[in-house]
Amino acid sequence: MQTLTYNSFPQVVTIAGSDSDGSAGAQADLHSFFVRNVYGMSILVAAVAGNSYGISAGHQFPLDFIDAQFKAIADDFHIRSAKTGMLANSELILNVAKNYRRVNFGPLIVDPVITTKHGAKLLEDQAIDTVRDILLPLATVATPNYSEAQAIVGFDFENENDVARAAQKIQGFGTQNVIIKGYHGDNFEGKTVSDYVLLADGSRYTLRANYIETEHINGTGDTFSAIITAEIAKGNSIKASIDIAKKATHQAIANTIQVGHKFGPINHWAIN
């Protein structure tokens, strides 16, 4: 007679918004979970109507519905790690933080989404303080890009020393491990992009990759943070999870897929 082992397969959850064209948000997270061999679930906080040209409308879900999603997943599944994506305002951030403290969803990876790659604002200005004061202290890993990191710490980056100083400041807010993504360097010539990593033990290093000239970059940040989430759920170290995510995301950018007319998605099928 077969013995059932419930919830033995690695399970993860994204707490994010739905992107109707599938290129970013919870959809990109779920693509990433799938290709990294974990079972992905979603707690949706909002939805946007968008396509490759941009976002035309958005809708926030009621807080009691978000509460119900947290409860439904916590009552049945063994979530080994979780991540956040677009949390558009302070009300949503406070609700998600309250629920995350109440459940056992493992390490939290915070992708502090502020704008899209093409300038559409996804977080209210006054909510940046809430991200810093409420959400970042819950984070095992935070993955802001360099423009998001500038908004969080309150100063612009003029050189790599500023990036390192910002990472230390974000760690000082309570985040254990910090990655500041996509710094193009002091005199960017279209050659490399750098991600600065500061780990909880104080060690630091830089991940570099060749810059890819393409408009198919939607979902890059979602994918990077989602793969970190997946790898942690499988038992990999924080450093190994970050390094795997960097390589995989670069593969997805470098091998483009032609979807849509303008700003397209990255190619999750290219990830190995």
How would you characterize this protein structure?
This protein is α/β, with parallel strands linked by helices and 272 residues long. The chain has a single domain, classed as 3-Layer(aba) Sandwich (UDP-N-acetylmuramoyl-L-alanine:D-glutamate ligase). It is built from 8 helices and 9 strands. It has helices at 25-35, 63-74, 90-102, 128-135, 146-153, 160-172, 220-233, 238-254; strands spanning 11-19, 39-51, 54-60, 79-84, 108-110, 141-142, 177-183, 192-198, 204-210. It is globular.
CATH C-level class: Alpha Beta
Please give the count of helices: 8
Output mean pLDDT: 93
CATH fold name: UDP-N-acetylmuramoyl-L-alanine:D-glutamate ligase
Strand order, sheet with most strands: 3-2-1-4-5-6-7-8-9
How much helix is in the residues?
Answer: 25-40%
Main structural class = alpha/beta
Write down the secondary-structure element order: EHEEHEHEHEHHEEEHH
Largest sheet: 9 strands, mixed
CATH architecture: 3-Layer(aba) Sandwich
Give the total of beta strands. Answer: 9
User: What amount of the residues lies in strands?
Assistant: 15-25%
Describe the global form.
globular
What integer value in Å does the Rg equal? 18 Å
Q: Let me know the CATH homologous superfamily.
A: Ribokinase
Q: Note the gap between the termini.
A: 36 Å
Detail the poorly predicted runs. Answer: none
How many separate domains?
1
